[in-house]
Amino acid sequence: MSRLFLRLLFCVILFKFALGTSYYKDSKVLEVKEDDFDNKVKSFKVTLVKFYNESCKKCVEFSEVYKNLANIFHDLVQVVAVKDENVSKKYKVKSFPSLKLFLGNGKESEPDVVDVDEGRDLDDLVSFTLKNLKKHVKHRAAKFIPKDSKKVVVQLTSDNFHSLVTDDTYNQWLVKFYAPWCGHCKNLEPEWMSLPKKSKGVKVGRVDCTSHQSLCAQFNVKGYPTILLFNKGEKNPKTAMNYEGQRTAADILAFAKKNDKALSPPTHATLVAELKEKCSGPLCLLFFFKPSTKEENLKTLKNFASKHTAPFALAYSLVGENEQWERVFGLKEFPAVVGLNLAKGVYLPLNSEFSKENLNKFVKSILSGKATGIKLSDDLKDTNDEL
């Protein structure tokens, strides 16, 4: 009888607590009523919603985990609790507590709703929320980035030339220096404007020398039009190449392709999509650096890239950013280097000290065909995809 009495007493206390006290008072969990619910979830934000019932024992037990979740995602994800019966019915909630993730599409559209079926463990819920937050950001980014943003001739000025061209070590640039009154410039204009749609990996710009005389003088422009090619890597008046051939789009692009020899500086890759974009060719060197030695290692790598003309790409990842990659390649000591051919699904690790000299030997052995690649044991994945 005494045990039964204690159980009943506990239930009464629990029930009174649920009725008289907010679970989330003085926490970062936002308690929302029916009349304000749509305003909260109909935005561009990501909102995690707990549907609960005041008399539900499991709801009370889960409240501490939910508070911690709100602390972790404060200012990143709205963490909301709602107990209104009508809201629960609208979203077909059948048991309590239930969790749903609302991915906002703006006030004029209904949000996408994802059921949270990851259990009630804090780590699992954090991983699930992060994974969906990442997808939501990518989805939004795709809407706001113009599809043809790279297929235009960029109007360059004294204010933007250095940030867009000089500081861009990853791309080739073709730049036309002209004057609006110049007849030859006007004749070239249709061909020049067609370049972006015909070029791959070459950015195209133009400078009005009547408005930006000092910039044109910096590049020793003495006649119009002057066409300069800026190759990948360091860009300055000394490295700029003067084009003096036929003024047709085909001939100008052929000149750029012929001189596209220098290696691009290394790209930071953390996702498989980024790696595939950068490493689509027959050979890519993928480096793994410790965060503490990143700058020192990048200096060595950039020095190597500036003096190499072999047709391959460079990418790097920091240790711990994607542990699945490190496992697949069998890496245990860092810095590490892997020669990678994604199309064939093979790789080859550098088994000597990380240095410019050893990198040169490593690349020569691969390009000569003497080295034998190792078959990838598994497809490369994003770390979050394993969660």
From TrEMBL:
GO terms for biological process: response to endoplasmic reticulum stress. Keywords: Isomerase, Signal. Residues 1-20 form the signal peptide. Residues 119-261 form the Thioredoxin domain. The keyword Isomerase applies. InterPro entries: Thioredoxin-like_sf, Thioredoxin_CS, Thioredoxin_domain. The keyword Isomerase applies. GO terms for cellular component: endoplasmic reticulum lumen. GO terms for molecular function: isomerase activity; protein-disulfide reductase activity. PANTHER family: PROTEIN DISULFIDE-ISOMERASE A6. This is Protein disulfide isomerase, putative.
